[in-house]
Amino acid sequence: MIDGVKINVPSINANNWLNNRYLHFYTYTSTKTGEQLKDVLFAKYKGLKFFIIKSKKHKGKYYYEVRGSLHKYFNKGKHNANDFTIENLKKVLKELHKKFDIDPKTAILRNVEFGVNILALIDAIEFLKCLVCYGNYPFSTFQINRIIIGKTIKQQRSHLKIYNKSKQLDLPIQNLIRIEIVVKKMMFLKSYKISTLSDLIDENKIKQLGTLLLSYWENVIYFDKKVNWKELTPFERKKLLYYVTPRNWEDFDKKQRYRAKKHFKELMCKYSTSTTQKDITALLIQKIEFLICPPINHVL
């Protein structure tokens, strides 16, 4: 469930990493002047980047960061398309502690991504077309390497990403979808008391993140046009078409949004022939439960 992280590692010194047999550090070079930027050293290993950054304010002081995908690290840096359980994460953190002296109890989270990969019952491309908005926020396109693969909602402290995992990794299947929350500011998770790497293997805290992910999805306005239009009254048809126009939600205040969402759900419940949003909810619940507590002897 946990994927990308950015962490500060306060409990080591530069020699621990510079002399590490797994890490080979490089400097950045300016493409314009050719000058080497010696204040930052970086190394790559199995989907993670390790940084040693010289402080500009405090003489002789260095900062140590790790950025990247813990899920990819588990897969030796190759991909993050399969399931990544809490037990897998425990193995990763144990290895990071052993190889790189990264203590999960003191490693401070600066950013974290959590989400799940699910096999939807419809094609991922068709699924993404049906996303209207979340709250007052209409979806915008989500790109990786300038290729549009999904949709996103960008808020100050967090981003919601729903995208075509099949397209991202060029997989033969067409219905692998990832639903993910990217925490940009850790204040977003303050009430969950998540601040260090060790918190990410606390089962109770991860369950709360799973509930949060579900809440996001259930509050998405999803419309796939599978509606018995002939049964709608002219007023109902007009309102439904209004609700499925993303820009209209931007102008609602909190009370108006609540009423609009309620009315939209009532119309969909009464006239829609689709169960896709409910199906996705069920798949999310099933996958979250599996990732937190997989069956004994299950083989991924």
How many helices? The count is 9
Low-pLDDT stretches are 296-300
The helical percent reads 25-40%
Quaternary status of these chains?
Answer: single chain
What's the β-strand tally? 13
For the biggest sheet, the summary is: 10 strands, antiparallel
Order of helices and strands: EHEEEEHHEHEEEEEHEHEHHH
Ends distance: 14 Å
Q: What percentage of amino acids are in beta strands?
A: 25-35%
As for the number of domains, it is 2
Rg estimate, integer Å: 22 Å
Shape: elongated
Describe what this molecule looks like in 3D.
This protein has 300 residues and is an alpha+beta fold. The protein has 2 domains: 2-221 and 276-292, no CATH class; 225-271, no CATH class. The protein contains 9 helices and 13 strands. The protein has helices spanning 14-18, 70-74, 86-100, 124-129, 165-168, 203-218, 234-243, 254-271, 276-292; strands at 2-8, 26-29, 36-45, 48-54, 62-69, 108-119, 131-134, 137-138, 140-144, 147-154, 158-164, 176-183, 220-222. The strands form 2 sheets. A 10-stranded antiparallel sheet has the order 2-3-4-5-1-6-12-11-10-9. It has a 3-stranded antiparallel sheet with strand order 8-7-13. Strand 7 (131-134) and strand 8 form a beta hairpin. Helix 6 (203-218) packs antiparallel against helix 9 and helix 7 packs across helix 8 (254-271). The chain is elongated, with a radius of gyration of 22 Å. It starts with a strand and ends in an 8-residue tail after the last helix. 28% of the residues are buried. The model is unreliable at 296-300 (pLDDT under 50).
